[in-house]
Amino acid sequence: MDEKTIVGTIANLIRRVDELEKQVAVLSSIRRKYITMIELPKHLQETYQVVADSGEQMSAAEVCAVTRKSRAVESGYLNQLARTHKVTKSKRGRQTVFARGDNNG
To answer: How far apart are the C-alpha atoms of 40 and 100, rounded to whole Å?
Structure first.
């Protein structure tokens, strides 16, 4: 093999490795999300799923609009998820909002 062929082959291998690394990152994120779901008690899974799928901060009122459960029930579930670090809890003005925890994919 001449030098040009070797350099081309190496460049091609580098591109393929980069593509594989991107695919692994996506799969790892998906895996973390579903491992988290499996670890949760059944009654918290739907609430977590709504917050995780939104990708944004949500209040209990916004979550209950999706799940059709009462705001008080969703507030309790969201606080349980916050205590176990599955979601983060913060303030948006006077309103308490929740988002998927950073370590959960």
So the answer is: 14
